[in-house]
Recover the amino acids of this structure.
C-alpha cells in the first residue's frame, strides 16, 4: 500500500517535471498532420546549404536569437510595422540572415499541408538540418509542436540577447534567466566554431581595452597582431573575421582548443576561461564525442525555452507577419 502511494507520487512528480521541461513538445509532432514536414524542411535546407556554406552559422544563430527573446516562438521572423519595431531591427541583429530560406520552406509546407507547421518549428528544424548537412545525418533531435507568437519587440532583443562584452557573471545570469546552466553556456558557445564576427564587437580588445590605447592582456598576442591587420580601426563595423580561424565552415569542437590558446574572439568567449567550473567544462569539450553529445542535449534545452504549445499562439501563414 505504502509502496503504491510512493509510486503514484513519484509518477506525478515526473509528470509535472516532464511538462515544465519542454512543455508538450514531442518527437515528430507532425507525423499524422503533415508526415512530409521534416523531410521538406531538410531538403530545402540542404539544397540551400549546398550552394551557400555560410548558411548553417546564420540559421543556428537565428534559432538562438529566437529562443532568447520571448521563447522559441518565431518572433525573430516578424517584420517591423508602422506601430512596432521588431526584434529584427534591434541592435543585436547585425548579420542575422537566412530569412529567405525560412520563407521558402514555409511556402513549400503551405502547399503540402496549409496552416499546420509553425514558423518556430521551421527555425528549430532548419538550424539542426543546416549544421547537419556536413555530416549527412541529423546531429541532434528536435522535438516539435511549437506554436508562433505574435509579439516581437526590438527592446526585448536588446535586453535578452547576451552582449559580446559580457563578463562571466553577466553571461551566467543571462543564461540562468532562460533556465540554462553554466554547462549549457559553455557547450552552446561552441557554436562559435562556425561563422564570423564583425570587427566592432571585439576591436576594443585590439586597440583600446582600458581606454589607454592598450590591448586586452587575455588575448593571445600573436593572434591580436593578426587581427589588427584585418580590423584596422576602432570604427570599422563592416569587416568580418572568422571566429574559429581556418575552420569556420566546419562544425566541430575546435572552438574549445582555440579558447585554450587564448584566441577566443569576443570578451564573452574569453570570459569562459575566467571561471573554474566553466574552464573544467572547456577541458572536457576537447573530446569530440563528449562535445557532440553535450551539444545535442543543450540544444534540446535551448529549443524548449518558453515555448507556446497546445492552443497557445497560432500557426502563422506567412512567417514575417502575424495572421490577421
Ligand atoms: C554566450 C553568449 C553569446 C554571445 C555573447 C554571442 C555573441 C555573438 C556575436 C557578437 C556574434 C557576431 C555577430 C556579427 O558580428 O555579425 C555572434 C555570432 C554567432 N553566434 Fe553567438 N553569441 C553567444 C551565444 C551563441 C549561441 C548560444 C549560439 C548558437 C547555439 C551562437 C551562434 C553564433 C553563430 C553561429 C555566429 C556566427 C554568425 C554568422 O556567421 O553570421 N552564439 N555571436
Ligand atoms: C537590423 O536592423 C537595422 C536597423 O536597425 C535594419 O536596417 C536591418 O535591415 C536589420 N537587419 C536584419 C537582418 O533584419
Ligand atoms: C547520405 O546518406 C544517405 C542515407 O543515409 C545515403 O544514401 C547517401 O549515400 C549518403 N551520401 C553521402 C554523400 O555519403
Ligand atoms: C561584470 O559586469 C557587470 C556589469 O557590467 C559588473 O557590474 C560586474 O562588476 C562585472 N563583474 C566582474 C567580476 O568583473
Ligand atoms: C535577467 O533577467 C532580469 C529580470 O528579467 C533582468 O533584469 C536582467 O537584466 C537579466 N539579466 C541578463 C544578464 O540578461
Ligand atoms: C557603421 O558606422 C557608420 C559610421 O560610424 C554608421 O553610420 C553606421 O550606421 C554603422 N553601421 C552599423 C551596421 O552599425
Ligand atoms: C598563442 O597562439 C599560438 C599559436 O598561434 C600558440 O602557439 C600559443 O601557445 C598561444 N599562447 C597562449 C598563451 O596560449
Amino acid at each position: 500500500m505504502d509502496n503504491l502511494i510512493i509510486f503514484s507520487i513519484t509518477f506525478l512528480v515526473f509528470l509535472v517535471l516532464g511538462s515544465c521541461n519542454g512543455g508538450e513538445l514531442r518527437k515528430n509532432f507532425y507525423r499524422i498532420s503533415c508526415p512530409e514536414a521534416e523531410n521538406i524542411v531538410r531538403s530545402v535546407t540542404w539544397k540551400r546549404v549546398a550552394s551557400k556554406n555560410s548558411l548553417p552559422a546564420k540559421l543556428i544563430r537565428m534559432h538562438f536569437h529566437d529562443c532568447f527573446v520571448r521563447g522559441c516562438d518565431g518572433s525573430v521572423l516578424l517584420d517591423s510595422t508602422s506601430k512596432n519595431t521588431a526584434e529584427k531591427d534591434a541592435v543585436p541583429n547585425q548579420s542575422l540572415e537566412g530569412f529567405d530560406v525560412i520563407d521558402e520552406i514555409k511556402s513549400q509546407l503551405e502547399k503540402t499541408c496549409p496552416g499546420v507547421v509553425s514558423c518556430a518549428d521551421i527555425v528549430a528544424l532548419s538550424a539542426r538540418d543546416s549544421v547537419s548537412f556536413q555530416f549527412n545525418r541529423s546531429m541532434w533531435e528536435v522535438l516539435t509542436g511549437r506554436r508562433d507568437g505574435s509579439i516581437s519587440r526590438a527592446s526585448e532583443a536588446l535586453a535578452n540577447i547576451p552582449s559580446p562584452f559580457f563578463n562571466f557573471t553577466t553571461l551566467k545570469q543571462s543564461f540562468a534567466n532562460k533556465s540554462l546552466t553554466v554547462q549549457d553556456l559553455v557547450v552552446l558557445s561552441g557554436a562559435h566554431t562556425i561563422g564570423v564576427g564583425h570587427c566592432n564587437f571585439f576591436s576594443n580588445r585590439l586597440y583600446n581595452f582600458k581606454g589607454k590605447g592598450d590591448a586586452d592582456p587575455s588575448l593571445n598576442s600573436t593572434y591580436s597582431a593578426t587581427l589588427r591587420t584585418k580590423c584596422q580601426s576602432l570604427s570599422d563595423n563592416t569587416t568580418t573575421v572568422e571566429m574559429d580561424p581556418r575552420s569556420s565552415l566546419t562544425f566541430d569542437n575546435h572552438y574549445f582548443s582555440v579558447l585554450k590558446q587564448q584566441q577566443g574572439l569576443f570578451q564573452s568567449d574569453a570570459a569562459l576561461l575566467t571561471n573554474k567550473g566553466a574552464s573544467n567544462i572547456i577541458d572536457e569539450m576537447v573530446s569530440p564525442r563528449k562535445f557532440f553529445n553535450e551539444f545535442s542535449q543543450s540544444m534540446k534545452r535551448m529549443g524548449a525555452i518558453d515555448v507556446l504549445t497546445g492552443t497557445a499562439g497560432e500557426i502563422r501563414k506567412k512567417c514575417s507577419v502575424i495572421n490577421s
